[in-house]
């Protein structure tokens, strides 16, 4: 270097060598270069240093004189000076052309070396770009290329990687840094080879020679050359060498040398070369190369999920989790071609790695193409261990053409993205895609290229997801039969978003909550600002930010706090892409939860609540034509802005003329929408509407809180905040204005002393001085209040004449009774003809009583004595209180109290899952009115669990777990059993039946895991593969993977648990299957040990994993629905035994039948134990086939099908021998003397007593009503009628919302502390039978959300024996028509028989068993589950099906039996016995 650093011939210039040094010379690979190259900045040497950029260089040199001649030198060990018009750059002591120590040259002070403290890959990338070479390969510290000059340039360069020259990087002083000395000199290496036209590790090979890039002939390039290229670029091993210009034809020269690498060189310039013999090689033969990536994801189950590992200097190492966030993860996913980042993880989530920790404090912007380009501490520099190794989950699927959570579905396979045929994609597939992307549940699956046609290949497999997988690559597939599917059929998907706003009154205002790992959590308000809120509003499609809020403005949330210190730039498409602390890392609590108010509408030119209406569409604000805007539209705008009711809609630019476009649509709001974008629109007919017709709006700026809309605490809007008013500052004139502005009539009463509760906001500091004739409160004069010490205890309240409220009177509990409305100062009853289902929904909601169950006319809860309300409610059903319902004058002027309407509300007001890993798994807790309680596991099944999961927006149930799986609850344990069909949308719609009254403690609290939970892939989860819904090879999720089960470890008790867990009834059979498929060939599971009573396989003792080898695996068949039933008693636990076989129900002959066989039936039906083996035909003879004969059970079987039996031949058995069974869980109640007498309960085969302890009026009244003995009664203490009878119940105490005795809590069966001689309950009822209730005179369905079914077309059966068998006909388009028998089976027949009230179905008849019908065929392809209430709830095709012949008409045969009570049967048998004697 001494010879290279001679004095320059020009003062202040670097030394210039002999002339030929200025000319590019030939470089031979393998020959070490020893001279120095320069990039020469001609303009720097002008007089006075005018060309020396002072702002950039004044930090590099000290003093003006030195700055005048300051240049940056990067010294290279090269023979060739490089000249450009911009800079002088060269490098030193690197041993080759593009490697060396980074030095600084100032003409007056000589050479200095850059300190390595801030020199990173971004700075090196700028230098390599400036030199015209390849990528920056490495940044080296600690004087890797030697210490250089003894003086250090006390400077540091900070580059962002996009600068064109290093002089444009920010310069900071390192003066005084004790760590900056010659031993910390920075160094770097640039690549002399690159891959073009692909990615960083794949593309056309180009080699740098001199200053030019050359392509390479495919005939001159082999695998050894490829190894060196991949190694030099820091990529993995070569994957493929591609000839024939696979990555496109180059434009520069073709390299004239043949590379002869041995494969172990570190760089391409170290390889020997020889002249190529392929002189005629053209760009058509440019060689391409695919190397493995330099980053990988390990131990995550797929190439797109796992621990992050980086390849550096030939060795894989991990990344430390300090400051690791979603932007860093996004770069990894982009580099791997793995779709979007779904999760950024730390703390060795995928297990600790080994080897070096290469990167720490990684700080990506998100736009980098590789992780190596991101800023970090430097290779191998860290203060970390492998317990903090980072991980990433990328998606194998993406949605294109919409938003992050909506668009065309594309699936990654290999390195290619494929679109999916809409015919190969269903709801289960959609659930997995939405889950993998971190979005909410699927909203809509759209076919027909709804998001545009794709351009690549179409996926040739059919996805067969079950819906519980965490990623799409975990779903089974099969070859698609849609070989001709084109991009016209690309499927699209809309998922619910991964961010939401809660408790703000609309979807565009509220507390910010983020979905992460299947659980909603909040965002800490630290540093929460307008840019963060802007991203939220954009992600939700909610327009502009109206308010940025923190400190739990919308109330504190619950669950995890997912994000903290959010730092969005404002341009991100989703909140998850913003910088923040790691998921769940915070020093925050829910009192700081962030909130946002977005709006797609604003009022301009007035106040916040008044002005010209402007609507956001796309990214543009539009004014609205006054002719296209009405009172309903105004109501929605005011509601969305959080103002009061619409007061005035002025047209003719009352608030000035707008300047943008006029909205070309006509809003058609109904008035109940929460936001303007929810309103329907139609093209406006006012094509010539100009800004002269811009509509304005005035909303109320006052509200009443804590009562109803027309009564409550007075609050006034000022700016964007609501203020309470001191009672000393408010008088009758002020009250008149408030009531007038709200449209609530005249004031009735002004109340002081915080009559409607103490507010929490600020107190209004002005004294209102209204005259009483103003139209709005803001028009009133005001003056500074003298009541400076007004406290929250002095808030004023107001009742206006428009105030209405409801109550329920005379029912068995506070959520049922006669409807009464308070209006003015009087309570009125309501005429049943003026009251409908929508009105009932509002009444139940206003009272906090859940959903309406029944609406009863005819004074079902007694007639009142006051006035009948002369108005008719006209509620829409979504109002929060009846004050918001419109009214009209009643036309029933002669309505009397005999027509007083009554309502029964469910009382069920809430449900939640507690103590799980997320909000979609946990212990079941139900709220009745204000009290929460748990549910006993014996009272809970998969159908109820599925309804609950749907109600909580958590998908479907995947498991019901008991034995306090999610910990013990506290407080009440509800006695309710929900008899759900499984298709209800809310638990309130399920009938509630009796409880087993087994002793239940919190150790038996039930839990549920829904498909929306991260626990849906919990240990012990089970699925059936390769068969039908309830049959197939058993797979168990064990040790984080799905594994097949070995047959030799299986038992019937374990099989019964699996069937129960799947909601598939009982075990039908289990057998062997062929050895497992290749993907499961490594490990199987064995040694499960279950008693057979567990609700979940995870409750059984631990299994173990073993090698599958060639051992036989398990195939199981469960009954898809209950394969046995007891009919004819009115209950599920007693009756004639019927079994489902060969598509229809039939009976069982009594030959060889005994108590052991009856025990199996009761166990299978979960009805306790068998009480006896009854005489034949005790429950009446059946009809249809007699399926089973000579049944022989040992008594310990879990299913009747596991017993020995014979199938009855024709004429072998008769219905006089039909078997009946009575199980211990069958229950009845009675009063021994009709409507008075001792209260007795039939249980466990015996009538027993009920003790009087704890019994109150609620309980007595309910018993009388249930026995149809009047609405009330009285109790007294009595002696047992039969001294030896057991005391079955004690401490029986019904709650206000219980509707049957079996819902009421009590001590467990037989546990009591009462004396048979004087503590038995005796009840005397009023005896006034309620004929309305007795005849079920209900105006509406017991299932409120199915009342619409009454409007569906009716059914009838024709051509059979009676009204309960025959050809099915439906009435449509004013004509009766038939149903095609395609897909017609017993499940459809069950629904028809249920709808017609014809008892259970015996069989489904096809092929025109009842003769062919005439006329159209209206229905085809009906596909029921069998538990629907109406045929219309089943998927079907309703039109004139001309393709179905009359020989294919569907028919049904029902039993025609109406159930009656077992007590009646017992009395009949007693009478027969007496007559016989």
Write a brief caption for the model.
With 1477 residues, this protein is mainly beta.
Structural account:
With 1477 residues, the chain is mainly beta. 11% of the residues lie in helices and 31% in strands. It has 17 helices and 96 strands. Strands 70, 71, 72, 73, 74, 75 and 76 form a seven-stranded mixed β-sheet that branches. Strands 77, 78, 79, 80, 81, 82 and 83 form a seven-stranded mixed β-sheet that branches. A hairpin with a 2-residue loop joins strand 91 (1365-1372) and strand 92. The longest helix is centred in the C-terminal third of the chain and has 15 residues, at 1462-1476. The radius of gyration is 40 Å and the shape is globular. The N and C termini lie far apart (131 Å). Mean pLDDT is 75; it is low at 1-87, 994-998, 1076-1081, 1329-1352 and 1457-1469.
Keywords for this entry:
single chain, 1477 residues, mainly beta, seven-stranded mixed sheet, 96 strands, 31% strand, disordered N terminus
The major beta sheet can be summarized as: 7 strands, mixed
Instruction: Give the helix/strand class.
Output: mainly beta
Helicity level, as a percent range? 10-25%
In round numbers, the mean pLDDT is: 75
Rg (CA only): 40 Å
Helix count from the secondary structure assignment:
17
- The end-to-end span amounts to 131 Å
Write down how many β-strands occur, each being a DSSP E stretch of 2 or more residues: 96
Name the quaternary structure. single chain
Strand content: 25-35%
Envelope shape? globular
Uncertain segments of ≥5 residues (pLDDT<50)?
1-87, 994-998, 1076-1081, 1329-1352, 1457-1469
């Amino acid at each position: 270097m001494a010879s290279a650093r001679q004095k320059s011939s020009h003062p202040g210039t670097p030394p210039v060598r002999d002339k030929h040094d200025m000319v590019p010379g030939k470089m031979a690979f393998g020959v070490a270069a020893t001279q120095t190259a320069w990039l020469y900045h001609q303009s720097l040497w002008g007089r006075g240093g005018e060309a020396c950029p002072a702002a950039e260089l004044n930090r590099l040199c000290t003093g003006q004189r030195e700055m005048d001649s300051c240049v940056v030198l990067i010294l290279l060990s090269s023979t060739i000076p490089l000249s450009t018009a911009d800079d002088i750059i060269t490098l030193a002591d690197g041993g080759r052309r593009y490697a060396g120590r980074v030095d600084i040259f100032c003409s007056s002070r000589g050479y200095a070396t850059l300190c390595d403290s801030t020199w990173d890959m971004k700075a090196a990338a700028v230098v390599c770009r400036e030199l015209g070479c390849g990528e920056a390969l490495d940044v080296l510290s600690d004087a890797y290329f030697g210490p250089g000059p003894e003086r250090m340039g006390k400077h540091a360069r900070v580059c962002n990687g996009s600068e064109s020259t290093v002089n444009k990087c920010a310069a900071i002083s390192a003066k005084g840094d004790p760590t900056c000395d010659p031993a910390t000199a920075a160094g770097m290496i640039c690549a002399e080879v690159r891959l073009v036209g692909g990615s960083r590790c794949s593309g056309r090979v180009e080699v740098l020679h001199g200053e030019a890039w050359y392509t390479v002939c495919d005939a001159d390039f082999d695998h050894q050359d490829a190894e060196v290229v991949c190694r030099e670029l820091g990529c993995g091993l070569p994957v493929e060498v591609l000839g024939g210009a696979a990555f496109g034809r180059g434009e520069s020269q073709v390299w004239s040398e043949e590379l002869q690498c041995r494969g172990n060189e570190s760089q391409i310039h170290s390889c020997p070369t020889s002249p190529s013999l392929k002189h005629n090689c053209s760009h058509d033969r440019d060689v391409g190369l695919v190397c493995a990536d330099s980053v990988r994801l390990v131990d995550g189950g797929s190439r797109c999920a796992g621990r992050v590992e980086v390849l550096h200097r030939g060795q894989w190492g991990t990344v430390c989790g300090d400051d690791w966030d979603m932007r860093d993860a996004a770069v990894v996913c982009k580099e791997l071609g793995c779709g979007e980042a779904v999760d950024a993880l730390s703390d060795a989530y995928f297990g600790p790695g080994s080897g070096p920790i290469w990167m720490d404090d990684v700080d990506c912007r998100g736009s980098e193409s590789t992780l190596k380009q991101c800023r970090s501490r430097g290779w191998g520099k860290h203060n970390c261990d492998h317990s903090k190794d980072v991980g990433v989950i990328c998606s194998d699927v993406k949605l294109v053409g919409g938003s992050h959570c909506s668009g065309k579905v594309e699936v990654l396979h290999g390195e290619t993205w494929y679109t999916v045929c809409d015919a190969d994609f269903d709801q289960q597939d959609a659930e997995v895609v939405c889950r993998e992307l971190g979005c909410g549940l699927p909203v809509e699956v759209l076919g027909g290229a709804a998001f545009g046609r794709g351009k690549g290949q179409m996926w040739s497999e059919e996805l067969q997801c079950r819906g519980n997988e965490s990623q799409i690559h975990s779903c089974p597939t099969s070859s698609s039969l849609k070989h001709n599917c084109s991009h016209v059929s690309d499927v699209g998907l809309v998922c619910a978003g991964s961010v939401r706003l809660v408790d703000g009154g609309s979807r565009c205002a509220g507390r910010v909550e983020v979905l992460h790992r299947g659980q909603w959590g909040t965002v800490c308000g630290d540093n929460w600002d307008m840019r963060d809120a802007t991203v939220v509003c954009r992600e939700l499609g909610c327009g502009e930010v109206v308010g940025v809020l923190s400190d739990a403005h919308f109330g504190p949330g619950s669950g995890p706090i997912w994000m903290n210190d959010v730092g969005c730039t404002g341009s991100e498409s989703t909140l998850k892409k913003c910088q923040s602390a790691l998921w769940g890392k915070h020093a925050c609590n829910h009192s700081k939860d962030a909130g946002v108010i977005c709006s797609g509408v604003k009022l301009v030119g007035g106040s916040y609540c008044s002005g010209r209406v402007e609507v956001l569409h796309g990214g543009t604000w539009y004014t609205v034509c006054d002719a296209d805007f009405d009172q309903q539209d105004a109501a929605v705008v005011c509601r969305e802005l959080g103002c009061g009711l619409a007061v005035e809609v002025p047209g003719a630019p009352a608030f000035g003329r707008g300047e943008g476009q006029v909205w070309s649509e006509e809003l058609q709001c109904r008035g109940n929408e929460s936001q303007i974008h929810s309103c329907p629109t139609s093209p406006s007919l006012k094509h010539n509407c100009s800004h002269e017709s811009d509509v304005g709006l005035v909303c109320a700026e006052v509200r009443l809180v804590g009562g109803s809309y027309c009564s409550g605490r007075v609050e006034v809007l000022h700016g964007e905040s609501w203020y309470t008013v001191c009672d000393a500052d408010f008088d009758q004139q002020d009250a008149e204005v408030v009531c007038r502005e709200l449209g609530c009539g005249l004031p009735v009463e002004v109340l002081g002393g915080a009559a409607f509760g103490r507010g929490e906001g600020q107190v209004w500091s002005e004294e209102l001085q209204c005259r009483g004739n103003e139209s709005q409160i803001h028009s009133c004069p005001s003056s500074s209040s003298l009541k400076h010490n007004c406290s929250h205890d002095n808030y004023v309240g107001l009742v206006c004449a428009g105030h209405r409220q409801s109550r329920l009177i005379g029912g068995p509990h506070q959520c049922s009774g006669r409807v009464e409305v308070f209006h003015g100062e009087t309570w009125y009853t309501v005429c049943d003809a003026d009251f409908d289902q929508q009105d009932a929904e509002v009444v139940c909601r206003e009272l906090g009583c859940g959903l309406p169950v029944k609406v009863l006319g005819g004074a079902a809860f007694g007639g009142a004595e006051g006035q009948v309300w002369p108005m008719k409610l006209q509620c829409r059903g979504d109002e929060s209180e009846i004050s918001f319902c419109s009214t009209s004058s009643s036309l029933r002027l002669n309505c009397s109290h005999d027509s007083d309407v009554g309502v029964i509300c469910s009382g069920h007001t809430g449900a939640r899952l507690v103590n799980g890993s997320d909000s979609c798994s946990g212990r079941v807790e139900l709220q009745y009115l204000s009290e929460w309680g748990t549910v006993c596991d014996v009272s809970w099944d998969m159908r109820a669990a599925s309804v609950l999961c749907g109600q909580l927006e958590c998908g479907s149930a995947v498991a019901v777990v008991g034995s306090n799986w999610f910990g013990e609850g506290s407080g009440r344990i509800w006695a309710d059993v929900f008899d759900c069909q499984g298709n209800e949308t809310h638990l309130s719609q399920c009938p509630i039946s009796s409880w087993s009254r087994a002793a239940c403690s919190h150790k038996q609290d039930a839990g549920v895991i829904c498909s929306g939970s991260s626990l849906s892939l919990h240990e012990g989860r089970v699925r059936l593969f390769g068969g039908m819904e309830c049959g197939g090879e058993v797979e168990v999720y064990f040790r984080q993977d799905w594994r097949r089960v070995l047959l030799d470890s299986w038992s019937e008790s374990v099989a019964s648990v699996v069937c129960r867990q799947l909601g598939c009834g009982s075990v039908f059979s289990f057998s062997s299957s062929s050895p497992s498929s290749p993907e499961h060939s490594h490990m199987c599971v064995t040694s499960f040990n279950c008693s057979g009573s567990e609700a979940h396989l995870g409750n059984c003792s631990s299994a173990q994993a073993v090698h599958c080898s060639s051992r036989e695996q398990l195939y199981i068949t469960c009954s898809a629905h209950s394969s046995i039933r007891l009919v004819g008693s009115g209950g599920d636990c007693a009756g004639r035994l019927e079994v489902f076989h060969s598509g229809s129900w039939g009976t069982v002959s009594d030959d060889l039948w005994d108590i052991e066989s009856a025990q199996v039936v009761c166990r299978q039906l979960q009805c306790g134990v068998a009480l006896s083996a009854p005489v034949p035909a005790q429950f009446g003879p059946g009809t249809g086939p007699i399926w089973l004969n000579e049944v022989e059970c040992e008594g310990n079987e879990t299913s009747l099908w596991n017993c020995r039996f014979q199938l009855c031949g024709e004429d072998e058995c008769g219905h006089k021998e039909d078997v009946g069974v009575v199980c211990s869980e069958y229950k009845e109640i009675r009063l021994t003397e009709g409507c008075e007498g001792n209260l007795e309960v039939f249980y466990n085969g015996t009538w027993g007593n009920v003790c009087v302890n704890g019994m109150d009026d609620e309980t007595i009244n309910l018993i009388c009503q249930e026995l149809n003995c009047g609405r009330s009664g009285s109790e007294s203490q009595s002696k047992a009628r039969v001294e030896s009878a057991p005391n079955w119940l004690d401490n029986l105490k019904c709650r206000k919302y219980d509707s049957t005795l079996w819902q009421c809590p009590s001590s467990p069966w037989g546990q009591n502390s009462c004396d048979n001689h004087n503590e038995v309950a005796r009840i005397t009822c009023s005896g006034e039978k309620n004929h309305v209730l007795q005849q079920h005179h209900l105006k509406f369905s017991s299932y409120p959300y199915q009342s619409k079914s009454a409007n569906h077309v009716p059914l009838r059966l024709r051509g059979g024996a009676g009204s309960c068998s025959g050809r099915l006909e439906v009435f449509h388009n004013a004509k009766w028509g038939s149903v095609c028998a395609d897909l017609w089976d017993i499940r459809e027949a069950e629904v028809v028989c249920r709808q017609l009230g014809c008892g259970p179905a015996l069989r489904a008849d096809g092929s025109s068993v009842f003769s062919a019908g005439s006329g159209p065929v209206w229905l085809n392809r009906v596909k029921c589950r069998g538990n629907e209430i109406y045929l219309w709830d089943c998927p079907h095709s309703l039109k004139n099906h001309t393709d179905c012949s009359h020989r294919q008409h569907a028919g049904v045969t029902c039993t025609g039996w109406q159930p009656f009570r077992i007590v009646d049967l017992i009395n009949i048998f007693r009478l027969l016995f007496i007559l016989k004697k």
